[in-house]
Every structure is written in structure tokens, then in C-alpha cells.
Design goal:
The protein has 93 residues and is an all-alpha fold. The protein has four helices and no strands.
Length: 93
């Protein structure tokens, strides 16, 4: 499989993986322990995907996967906000 195809597949998987974590992050108070968990728990899965698709950690892969990571988080947060339009008391620790 070509390198560009592998990067694209991993970027799509990273994006999809981060949507539920973004939804979770959307209901948490900012800068709490759970909020940091919602951001950092998907990272081991991203590392595993890099190994499974033989991407390694070359510098040229970072922009694609970082954008996918943050767009997944952002979309998840937006989904949460859309489904809960009225301001509610955010969950805390």
C-alpha cells in the first residue's frame, strides 16, 4: 500500500476515533482532570495505528494526523453543543 494511502487511512481513523472523545470533552469543565483525559486518552490508539500501518514517526506525517486529531475533537464538541443547545451546568470532577 502506498504511503499517501496509509496516511489518509490513518488520518480518517484518527478523526473518527476522536469524535466520541470530543463529545465527552464538550460536557466537561475546561482544564479539569477529566477534560485532559478526554484529550489525551486517544493518543495511545494513534500511536498503535502508526505502528499497524507502518507509518513510523516521520515529520511529514504529523501535520495530517494532528489536523485529523483536532478536527475530530472539535466536531465531537460541536455535536455535543448542537444536541444540548441550552447552557447547562457542566460536569465537574
Amino acid at each position: 500500500m502506498e504511503l499517501a494511502v496509509r496516511i489518509a487511512i490513518v488520518a480518517i481513523l484518527v478523526f473518527l476515533l476522536n469524535i466520541p472523545f470530543g463529545i465527552w470533552r464538550g460536557r466537561l469543565k475546561k482544564l479539569t482532570f477529566k477534560w485532559f483525559l478526554a484529550i489525551h486518552l486517544p493518543i495511545p490508539a494513534v500511536v498503535a495505528l502508526r505502528y499497524w500501518f507502518d507509518l513510523g514517526f516521520a515529520w511529514y506525517t504529523y501535520p495530517f494526523l494532528l489536523v485529523a486529531f483536532f478536527l475530530g475533537q472539535l466536531l465531537g464538541k460541536k455535536i455535543y453543543q448542537r444536541n444540548n443547545p441550552e447552557p447547562i451546568k457542566k460536569e465537574v470532577e
